[in-house]
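Thread title: Can someone regenerate the structure for this chain?

I was given the following input by a collaborator and told the matching structure tokens would be attached. They weren't. Posting the sequence so someone can regenerate them.
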Amino acid sequence: LPIWNKLGKNLHLQQQHPLGIIKAKVENYFETRHTNSPHVEPKYRIFDNLNPIVSTKQNFDDLLIPLDHVTRRKTDTFYVDEQQVLRTHTSAHQTQLMRAGHDAFLVTGDVYRRDEIDARHYPVFHQMEGVRFFSLQQLGVNSIDAAVPLVKQDLQNTLAGLARYLFGNVDMKFVDAYFPFTDPSMELEIFFHNIWMEVLGSGVVHRQIVANCGIEDRVGWAFGLGLERLAMVLFDIPDVRLFWTEDRRFHDQFKSGEVVKFQPY
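Best answer:
Regenerated them for you:
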């Protein structure tokens, strides 16, 4: 698979494509929250066309990913040269956007990992990242320690609402997790089609990252989700390779704004 041919395909920007439909739904959820309570919920800036070639500093160092971490290996990640990679996650843009002063944003893009191709794995997929920061004043507290549980609670409320918006009135649970760039960290699982399914990873942005970005007086949360994973479940698409097909029998089944069940052909 010539990976370079995939750059610029931007399936997430195709409004009639299942990935574009899910992206729009998530963006719409955050837009609706803002519209319904503009004084409480910020307007999220949308970044969906950032360059997938990023520095190793952006992709790894800025996110506190250890030097010996498996994702840094050339067998795991596509290196452009010693200093640059094809991003392995949309989190690669988090610190540049934080430094630029954005305190509520959604980033969507194609991400690249050296995966063997099968029904569930493909070396290119699409992620969506959400980040929101608060000042201590907004939270009504006067210390970072007091702020963290409030930010964690806001994150959980926000994500529970997103899960219901996408999947209906499902049972869900937050499970403690570990990510180098958040602390505390948690995964959201929902009970859907009679199984517990992980939907996304999330957490309170690590204090070291916040300090490195020069915004020590703020506390924020972040989450990341895979668009393919959600689309496969919501549209009943059995094979991740179908997202890349040019076949009209696939594409003619989908319309912007509608979640329908895929009919095999």
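The beta strands are 45-47, 53-55, 79-81, 84-86, 104-112, 124-135, 171-179, 182-192, 195-205, 218-226.
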